[in-house]
Design goal:
single chain; alpha/beta; 8-stranded parallel beta sheet; two-stranded antiparallel sheet; 12% strand
Amino acid sequence: MHYRSLGRTGLRVSPMCLGAMMFGAWGNPDHDESVSIIHAALDAGINFIDTADVYSAGESEEIVAKAIAGRRDEVVLATKFFAPMGEGPNQSGGSRYWIMRECENSLRRLGTDHIDLYQVHRPDPTMDVDETLGALTDLVHQGKVRYLGSSTFPASAIVEAQWTAERRGRERFVCEQPPYSMLVRGIETDVLPTCQRYGMGVIPWSPLGGGWLSGKWRLGETDLTSRRAARIPDRYDLSKPSNQKKLEAADALGKLADEAGMPLVHLAVAWVINHPAVTAAIIGPRTMDQLTSQLGALDVELSDDVLDRVDEIVPPGKNFSWADAGWAPPSLTTAKLRRRSHG
């Protein structure tokens, strides 16, 4: 296993990060099987695990705790906060009140005295980022957190957080966790270059494009269903032109993988890892077979001809829909922000 530095931290992590979203009620409810998958990943040389408090309402963190018991020192352990963890008005977000409380909850569920990488799960334009960075800085100084990161932040929010950290003397975000795949390339426009300018690591989620690049989604297939499609059907509804175009692109990428003599899964993961800004691709297996099918991507070298063909199928910087970005700014989702008041 060839390890990479996470940004400028000097912390060495594997080029694959084991995502734990599918361990628990959202994916695999069998704790023993999930633990076995985590152990297999560690035995293969993966030393980076990413989870979040919201995954299966904390169950994912509890499963990870079982798996790393006795092996904690082998693991760079990352988790996230921000999403609602209850019905209370202060059980989510990036306030000092919630961060300090939820960090303790994650430490308890993870069975550890420190979190190696603590990440804000989504941006909140209504929140003063200094409030968030101030609380996170205190956690670092208390020894409960080692490094800070963001997830699915637009470039402007990444820059604002870096400037705020410098001007207010806060700990800074050392990495960003964005969506990135051969079908979701929007971050190439500004997020990736911004991370490179600030020396930030990049750990993309969903290198298989939410399953579109699993090899199953091909033209002519009649059984185009999946657990994820059942949970968020709007993103897989082929009556929508954007999803139909995505299917056509996935099919073309599948044909390219066939011609290159490799599974589409290998092409997809290797392609993400190949970008010079990327530190590690987050893989999220639900089963042992899914883990083993993705591990082979570590041995794949992509030629310039293959990379050029990918660019022809999905142009650099292209997303098929705003949903692919993982977060939409209020300026797009809230109509009144685009209209003058007539009051």
